[in-house]
Amino acid sequence: MRHLKSYWDTHRHRMAPQIAAKVTRALEAGALRVHKGRVTHAQQDSRSATLEIKLRRGGAHAVKAQRVINCAGFEQDYRRMTDPFIRALFQKQWLTASDLGVGIKTRNDGAAVNANGSASAWLYAIGPMRIGTLLETTAVPEIREQAEEFAAMLEARQADGLSKFAESGYRG
After folding, report:
1. Exposure pattern of 69-89 as b/e (b: 16+ CB <10 Å)?
2. For residue 4, what is the DSSP state?
3. Which sequence spans correspond to the domains of the chain?
């Protein structure tokens, strides 16, 4: 997955035609250059950044730029995230990494799976967090579908809870 992800993302997630035209013009004018590889070192001063890039096809390249745009996407190994909330969920073992090491382990309905292998009754995920379970979970159509399924589940739980409440004979 680590080696093929960039190729898949390039073919799966296309830019809008208007943006593609602007990018093409910038490339043709020399205002934009694309380097395929991994950044191995970065140094910043008050006006620019210097990057050392290990090129995909071999060799290295140094780039000094006023602007750097990372097109690699978001961090997918949630164990490495610095967000305090996500870190706390991992520390409490309420979240676990997926078997692929990307996203978190979830059940098919999005329930987070804890370190003991049990699905949570209260902690759910939709979208990119589920990439370890659902490969296609970063685009709007898939996220919309997950949100609709989650909303339907919540509605069913609420309806079930209200009927149990009515059956209890509570008269307030």
Report:
1. eeeeeeebebeeeeeeebeeb
2. T
3. 5-65, 78-165
Backbone torsions φ then ψ of 61, nearest 5 degrees: -150, 135
Helices (H), the chain: 5-12, 17-29, 84-91, 140-167
Q: What is the pTM of this model?
A: 0.63
The pLDDT value given to residue 104: 92
pLDDT exceeds 80 at position 171: no
Task: Identify residue 32 by its one-letter amino acid code.
Answer: L
Q: Given the structure tokens 């676990």, which residue do they identify?
A: 96
Would strands 49-55 and 111-113 be described as parallel, antiparallel, or unpaired? unpaired
| Least confident stretch, 34-43, 76-85, 130-139, 158-167 | 158-167
Token pair 């804890």 is found at 114
